[in-house]
């Protein structure tokens, strides 16, 4: 039997076994780990131990969130199959078991349809893992409003009123100190037609009526604006390494473009009598489910802790970290791909509590 | 990982004593900012400095270091 070797780089762990028949490699990425401890629970040989995640997450202790005993580890890959955030991955001869049909894996997805998406960026802002990037190209402003504007430079007295009042910064003047050869305060005035929105404020404010301007939309309606000119184009991207399938994007999306499927169903119970409001759960929760309620008026006594279970993935990190056993996470369903192995099925089913 | 204190750094403010959720569950008056009424708690200020009484009760949640102004209490 070839012995396992372990490599630790920064906080990432790699357990390796190279035998003549095959190469087995279990890798752990600390940054992706949410401290749920599911790997510790599912490991059939008790090779994985969850660290003191409260202290690690909150005080920046330089430790990995889990430890793996390479002498106990049999490189079976159950932790890799059960990790809800893919922080653990077993590779057989460089191929991930997540890409092999024989191995079961948790059924969880997060998708944003670029067809439906209006690129409002609400999901990007709401995502607790900063996993979403929305790239958008805005329409050309000058195509959305048309008109005509002209400044009669002979009448203009270079007072700068229009430049100061223009809300679009479209009027540009060449200011200078007057000299005997050029006794003016500005050598030129021009309108940047890409910026001008034809609001006509300059025309109305000009003290010498030097500006002639007309807005075509106001005069003739919007008939000459092409719908394609106002189209917002873009694309969405979800970083699968960072995404925990919490469902914030789906919930906040105004056009139902985001769809999330969670691997676990369950219940999150908080015992407010026991809770001492230390905030460890609030800090560890990867999904921003837990928060401290804010009082709305002086003297108002609010609850110690608030939950929004819509976004809970029932990972159990909060339960692990709670120092006074005030939190209970029940998993009533675990959704995974079919497997012929009864022992794997049994082990994955055991995550139900 | 262990809970440790550096008494030379401690100002005796007692922030850790009242912030500790385990202390509060053992001696509820600390939740309101009072001193604990029993030595069953994890830590207490004695003679002006912090002293650990029952470090084995610590669950390493990381709350006390967040409130200590001088890093006199820490997890290592």
Structure in words:
- The complex is a heterodimer of chains A (353) and B (76).
- With 353 residues, chain A is of the alpha+beta class.
- Chain A has helices spanning 38-42, 53-59, 78-82, 122-126, 141-144, 161-165, 201-205, 216-220, 248-252, 280-284, 317-321, 342-349, and strands spanning 5-9, 12-18, 23-28, 48-50, 66-68, 88-92, 95-96, 109-112, 132-137, 147-151, 171-175, 186-191, 211-215, 233-238, 258-261, 264-270, 290-291, 306-307, 327-334.
- Chain A folds into 3 domains: 5-99, 2-Layer Sandwich (Alpha-Beta Plaits), CATH 3.30.70; 113-132 and 246-349, Alpha-Beta Plaits (2-Layer Sandwich), CATH 3.30.70.20; 141-228, Alpha-Beta Plaits (2-Layer Sandwich), CATH 3.30.70.
- Chain A has a 5-stranded antiparallel β-sheet with strand order 1-2-3-6-7.
- Chain B starts with a strand and ends with a strand.
- Chain B is an alpha+beta fold and 76 residues long.
- The mean pLDDT of chain B is 94.
- The chains are: A alpha+beta (353), B alpha+beta (76).
- The A-B interface holds A 51-52, 54-59, 61, 63, 274, 276-280, 283, 321-324 and B 1, 19-22, 24-25, 31, 59-63, 65-66, 74-76.
Quickly describe the structure.
Chain A has 353 residues and is α+β, with helices and mostly antiparallel strands. Chain A has three domains: 5-99, Alpha-Beta Plaits (2-Layer Sandwich), CATH 3.30.70; 113-132 and 246-349, Alpha-Beta Plaits (2-Layer Sandwich); 141-228, 2-Layer Sandwich (Alpha-Beta Plaits), CATH 3.30.70.20.
């Amino acid at each position: 039997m070839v012995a396992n070797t372990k490599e630790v780089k920064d906080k990432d762990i790699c357990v390796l076994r190279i035998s003549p028949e095959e190469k087995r490699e279990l890798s752990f990425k600390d940054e992706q780990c949410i401290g749920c401890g599911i790997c510790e629970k599912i490991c059939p040989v008790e090779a994985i131990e969850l660290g003191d995640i409260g202290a690690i997450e909150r005080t920046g202790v330089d430790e990995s969130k889990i430890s793996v005993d390479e002498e106990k580890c049999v490189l079976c890959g159950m932790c890799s199959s059960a990790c809800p955030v893919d922080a653990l991955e077993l590779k057989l001869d460089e191929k991930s078991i997540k890409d092999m049909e024989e191995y079961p894996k948790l059924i969880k997805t997060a998708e944003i349809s670029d067809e439906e998406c209006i690129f409002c960026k609400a999901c990007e802002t709401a995502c607790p893992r900063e996993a979403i990037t929305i790239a958008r190209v805005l329409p050309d402003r000058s195509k959305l409003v048309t008109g005509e504007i002209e400044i009669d430079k002979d009448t203009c007295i270079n007072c700068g009123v229009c430049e100061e009042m223009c809300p679009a910064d479209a009027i540009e003047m060449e200011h200078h100190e007057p000299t005997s050869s050029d006794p003016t305060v500005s050598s030129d005035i021009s309108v940047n037609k890409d910026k001008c929105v034809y609001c006509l404020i300059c025309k109305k404010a000009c003290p010498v009526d030097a500006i002639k301007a007309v807005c075509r939309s106001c005069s003739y309606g919007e008939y000459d604006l092409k719908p394609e000119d106002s189209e917002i184009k873009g694309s969405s991207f979800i970083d699968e390494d960072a995404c925990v399938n919490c469902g914030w994007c789906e919930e906040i999306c105004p056009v139902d473009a985001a769809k999330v499927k969670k691997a676990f169903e369950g219940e999150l119970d908080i015992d407010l009598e026991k809770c001492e409001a230390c905030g460890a759960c609030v800090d560890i929760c990867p999904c921003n489910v837990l928060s401290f309620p804010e009082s709305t008026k002086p003297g108002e006594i609010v609850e110690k802790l608030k939950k929004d279970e819509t976004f809970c993935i029932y990972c159990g990190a909060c339960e692990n970290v709670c120092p006074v056993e005030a939190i209970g996470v029940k998993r009533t369903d675990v959704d995974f791909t079919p497997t012929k192995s009864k022992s794997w099925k049994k082990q994955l089913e055991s995550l139900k509590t | 990982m262990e809970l440790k204190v550096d008494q030379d750094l401690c100002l005796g403010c007692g922030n850790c004593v009242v912030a500790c959720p385990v202390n509060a569950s053992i001696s509820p008056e600390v939740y309101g900012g009072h001193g604990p009424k029993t030595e069953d708690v994890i830590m207490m200020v004695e003679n002006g400095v912090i002293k650990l009484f029952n470090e084995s009760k610590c669950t390493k949640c990381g709350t006390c270091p967040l409130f200590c102004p001088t890093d006199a209490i820490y997890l290592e």
